[in-house]
Amino acid sequence: MKKDIEIPVVKDVYLALIQEWNDDFLEKKWNAYILNDRDTPIDMVLVVSKGYDEHRKTSTMRHSIAIMATKSYAKIELIQDDVLELNNEFFVTFFADGKLYERKFLFEKDTITEGNLVDIPIIHKPGIFAK
């Protein structure tokens, strides 16, 4: 029976952190974005995030996006400075091409720094990709 279960591999959907100016805090803050670099739209996107380490755990945040067009992105949430010291885990689930996809993305603790910036496609800003 297990051999009959198809688990599709998530391709061309990414999670990235972008450091942007925040008018409320009057300083740069990290924001989490989901990117759909697929040639097809994705829908019923659900993102569940949490931060954790050996001694601490944040509350679980849930976000939904009805539909993401091809080659598009959406802002998910602001990441507080004290949460950057933790592992930040994002579970992304979505439907595409009549199938359900799921993937875990991880930003390991203390890796969210300006020294790790790369160019993020679609958004065209420097940021950090999740593993």
Quick structural summary:
The chain is mostly beta strands and about 130 residues long.
Can you give a write-up of this model?
- The protein is mainly β and about 130 residues long.
- The protein has strands spanning about 15-20, 25-35, 40-50, 60-70, 70-80, 85-95, 100-105, 120, 125-130.
- A 5-stranded antiparallel sheet has the order 5-2-1-9-8, with no helix packed on it. Strands 4-3-6-7 form a 4-stranded antiparallel sheet, with no helix packed on it.
SSE topology:
Blueprint: E1 13-22, E2 27-36, E3 42-52, E4 61-68, E5 72-79, E6 87-96, E7 99-107, E8 118-120, E9 125-129
Antiparallel strand pairs: 1-2, 1-9, 2-5, 3-4, 3-6, 6-7, 8-9
Question: Spatial order of the strands in the main sheet?
Answer: 5-2-1-9-8
Outline type: globular
Beta-strand residue fraction: over 45%
Distance between the termini: 31 Å
- Topology, number of strands: 9
Rg for CA atoms:
15 Å
Helix content: under 10%
- What's the tally of helices? 0
Organism: Maribacter aquimaris
Protein name: Phenylalanyl-tRNA synthetase subunit alpha
